[in-house]
Design brief:
This protein is of the alpha/beta class and 144 residues long. It has helices spanning 14-27, 44-55, 98-103; strands spanning 4-6, 9-13, 32-37, 69-72, 79-83, 107-111, 125-132, 135-143. An 8-stranded mixed sheet has the order 1-2-8-7-3-6-5-4.
Length: 144
Amino acid sequence: MPPRATRGHLVMSEQELIAWGERLGADSRPRLVIALTGELGAGKTTLAQAICRGYGVTTPVTSPTYALVHEYAAPHSPVFHIDLYRIERVEDLEQIGWSDIVASNALVIVEWPEHAGDLLPADHLPIALDYDPERADRRLLLAG
C-alpha cells in the first residue's frame, strides 16, 4: 500500500519512509540543505540514511550525534550529515565549520535544525517527522 495523505501529512511505514527518502536523494542536487525535525526516535536518522543512499553514498551512514558532523563521498558532491542535538548555543556552530558547510556545493542534511536558529539558510528544505497517534509503527511526514 502506498503512503496515504492525511491532513497535509504523508502517513507511512518505515519501509515507505526509506523508499521516499531514497527517491528524494536520487532527485537531489547540490547545493541543498535538508532540515529534519522530529522527536527522538521519530526516524530522522533513518530518513537521512535513505536520502544518502539515494544520493549515491555507498559507505554506511551513521548518526553523527557525538561527532556532530559526518562527511560522505557521493557522485554529485560531498554529503554532510549534521546532528545539532548537543549544540546548546548558536555560537557553537562555528566550531563545526557551519558557515563553510552550508555555503559549500554539497548536500547537507541537518538533524535538530532548530538549534541553528537564524543561521539555518532560508532556502532549506524542511521535513518534519512525527509519530502516527493511531499506529506506533507508522510515521507522519510533512515536507516543504
